[in-house]
Amino acid sequence: MFNIILFGPPGSGKGTQSEKLVEKYGFVHLSTGNLLRDEISRQTPLGTEAKSFIDKGQLVPDEVVIGMVGSFFDKNKEATGFLFDGFPRTVAQAVALDKLLELKKTEIAALLALEVGEDELVKRLLHRGQTSGRSDDTNEEVIRKRFAVYSKETTPVAEHYSNLNKLQRVKGDGTIDGIFGLLCSAIDTKKK
Ligand code: AMP
Q: Domain holding 183: CATH number?
């Protein structure tokens, strides 16, 4: 198996680039944000709990997210590689992921971190809010809260994988195709 984490702040292009990477490499895409939005639209108890956190720009509790990832693995036993998008978002989630992968006799090959300046991120998110129907993208206060949470709780995840020699930074402020090219080179180097 070959597994990567696509990492970066809200609005850094993880979703857009994930779609392209899945098409090129055949990864199974695991976006915890998409899984949570699906639970919300199906009005499940998990969705109702998650919505109260998402609407405030807070993280959904680790045990809820880790449980959801465990069931996703159970449903995708034939996968030859996962692309993790928006997960892990805390060090506790990273440690849990490493353990779950170890049980599957595999590991993270690389964490690719998209780097984009904050002004550009806010611009992109407010623009996305006009078209995506995502309520957490329309309110600037919620967006700022998500950045604060990212810098406090999520950036240590990059350090966790840096300590394992798996962090690779990628400039995320160019064109979609330009950034895709940089991500593909990083992946191809790791796959060799
Ligand atoms: P995303 O689509 O990845 O930007 O996620 C949207 C929202 O879902 C986030 O702002 C969090 O509230 C929640 N969320 C998504 N993934 C996670 C995660 N791995 N851990 C905790 N909360 C998450």
A: 3.40.50.300
- In this predicted structure, the answer to whether residue 18 has a pLDDT above a threshold of 90 is yes
Number of structural domains in the chain: 1
pLDDT, averaged across the chain: 95
Which of 69, 64, 29, 59 has the alpha carbon at shortest distance from 45? 64
Domain carrying residue 135:
3-191
The candidate with the shortest Cα–Cα distance to 12, out of 154, 135, 113, 162, is 113
Report the pocket of ligand 1 as residue ranges, CB < 6 Å: 10, 32-33, 36, 53-54, 58-60, 65, 86-87, 89, 93, 136, 146
pLDDT, tens digit, 9 for 90 and up, residues 99-138: 999 999 999 999 999 999 988 898 899 899 899 888 888 8
Q: Annotated catalytic, 37?
A: no
Residue 150 and residue 118 in contact, taking contact as beta carbons nearer than 8 Å:
no
Q: What gap in Å lies between CA 28 and CA 14, rounded to an integer? A: 14
- Preceding amide of 156 cis, omega within 30: no
pTM attached to this predicted model:
0.95
